[in-house]
Design goal:
Order of helices and strands: HHHHH
Number of domains: 1
Distance between the termini: 61 Å
Helix content: over 70%
Structural class: mainly alpha
Number of helices: 5
Largest sheet: none
Radius of gyration: 19 Å
Amino acid sequence: MSQILKWSSMAAVIITGWIGNIPDVVKVLIVLMFLDILAGVVMARSLGKLSPSQAWNGVGKKVMTMILVGLAYISSGSLFAPEVGIHFGSAAAGFFAIAESISILEKAERIGIPIPDFLREGFARLESKDSEKSAKKIGKK
């Protein structure tokens, strides 16, 4: 019993330290990803289309998103940060957080939950601004 307690305590310390070093925008993204997965399960169940292969496909996309955010953080810190003046990691995590929020709203709407216009319009504005800024920065060389 004491070995289990010892290992559990060590794991808790390691996880707490690791989570403490994650930027807030990435923590928000992780929470939104979890909520989007949960919303997907609820939507699929309510529509009678629950499929393990689709669920794993969605989880795979979340994993790839986190890989892209990690790549953006690594690249921003070592390759581009001084020249560009923005932190790619935070920008990428913010972009994907907006996309996750929109996905949750869309799933809620598909199962018949009314979405207030101010939420729909607000996220649409954020999404279009992010897309415009990305296009402008990519267009600049």
